[in-house]
Specification:
6-stranded antiparallel β-sheet; alpha+beta; about 35% helix; 17 strands
Length: about 400
């Protein structure tokens, strides 16, 4: 098949491939249809520091930086990057792989000289998206892609938390979400979650008390209870109440989970909120960064049948919201200095032009610099949401 011809059935061929054989199938398709000489699937690791090639396990091949070099630039900018090769002559095209706003990695395709025309690059971008969707689906049936994402072993608590998360990003016409967790390979009690429908977005940030497996089990119960209540169709305050009862029934008030619940009306930008604990919420609007003051209510499971009330506020097109867990705003340096609002505001101001994904990562990077070590003693969760509003 000539390089100028479309790839009408590539998605169908990928869907029919065994989960572990997606890379080999994609390599064969690209060789046949665009004359690709080589193809590499690179997945972002849990810490978003490197992109790791998916190859024969247990080896994944040498990683490349996730924010530097041609592949890292494609991942960071979410745009194709064409690298010119001298010997042998040709082009190496790096294409971001993103599924519904969740950045998975980069597809690198080597083409012969003269083959990297704009139409081919555009079709390769569509192919990369199709491959990303299949990788996301294949994750349910094989460990291959989970293993390729890690530079070292996850703790058991971290394994449970990453399986609980919806992803690290989500995008629709009305909003773009980017989120980040640290310590990525040893996270315990921090979690973020979201669910979107035709007219609403529900977003939560949860911080389970304690560390390690105990915190992970507590957060799993709290998030599961919140999801169960949400899927039963009850309101935001009742979601908090039902989750509160579930946690108290299990732990009797000995431990609890702090949670911030937000329910967005996608048509109007109206937001209903329940602040059940310690996560904090900030808004950037017209060059200003301000904390949204919400009524602090009891964490989930602290007392039996705690009442919860909803509050409301409004978001406007161009607003950016940033939610941070206690492990961010409550962390102190070796000298005892609190990370606090001042440092957070400085980072948020400096990263305003960046994407929500990079802003969330930058906040955690600033926290690590403030703390003086990557080995944070408290989990840190950051969720950044850019509000675009609904057209018309």
């Amino acid at each position: 098949m000539k390089a100028s011809e479309p790839l009408p059935s590539a998605e169908a061929v990928l869907r029919a491939a065994p989960p572990h054989a997606l890379v080999a199938t994609a390599r064969r398709l690209l060789a046949e249809r665009v004359g690709a000489e080589e193809m590499t699937l690179l997945l972002a690791d849990y810490g978003l520091t490197v992109l790791q090639p998916v190859s024969h396990l247990p080896h994944t091949g040498p990683p490349v930086p996730a924010h530097d070099g041609p592949a890292g630039t494609a991942f960071l900018s979410q745009s194709p990057v064409v690298e010119v090769l001298r010997e042998p002559a040709g082009h190496l095209v790096h294409l971001p792989i993103t599924v519904r706003g969740d950045r998975l990695g980069v597809l690198s395709v080597r083409l012969p000289a003269g083959a990297a025309d704009p139409d081919t690059v555009l079709r390769l971008g569509d192919f990369a998206t199709a491959l990303g969707h299949e990788v996301s689906t294949a994750d349910r049936d094989t460990d291959l892609y989970h293993l390729a994402r890690r530079t070292r072993r996850l703790t058991l608590a971290a394994e449970m938390q990453w399986q609980l998360l919806p992803g690290r990003g989500c995008a629709r016409e009305e909003y773009v979400i980017g989120a980040h967790l640290e310590p990525a390979y040893a996270i315990g009690g921090d979690n973020f979650d979201w669910s979107t429908g035709a007219d609403r977005l529900v977003l939560t940030v949860t911080d389970g008390m304690g560390q390690g497996i105990d915190a992970s089990l507590l957060t799993s119960l709290a998030v599961g209870a919140l999801r169960n209540a949400r899927r039963a169709g009850v309101g935001l305050a009742d979601q908090a109440s039902l989750a509160d009862q579930a946690v108290f029934a299990q732990y009797g008030g000995k431990v609890y989970a702090s949670t911030l619940l937000l329910d967005f009306d996608l048509a109007t930008g109206g937001v209903r909120a329940v602040d059940a604990g310690s996560p904090q919420l900030f808004r950037q609007r017209a060059g200003r960064t301000e904390r949204i003051e919400l009524e602090a209510q009891l964490p989930l499971g602290m007392f039996e049948e705690s009442p919860y009330d909803e509050q409301t506020f409004q978001v406007e097109p161009g607003d950016r919201l940033i939610a941070v867990s206690t492990g961010v705003h409550g962390t102190r340096s070796a000298t005892g200095d609190l990370f606090g609002e001042r440092a957070l505001r400085q980072i948020l101001s400096a990263t305003r032009p960046a994407s929500p994904h990079e802003t969330a990562r930058a906040v955690v990077a600033g926290l690590i610099e403030h703390y003086g070590s990557k080995d944070l003693t408290s989990d840190a969760a950051v969720v950044c949401l850019d509000w675009n509003g609904r057209r018309g």
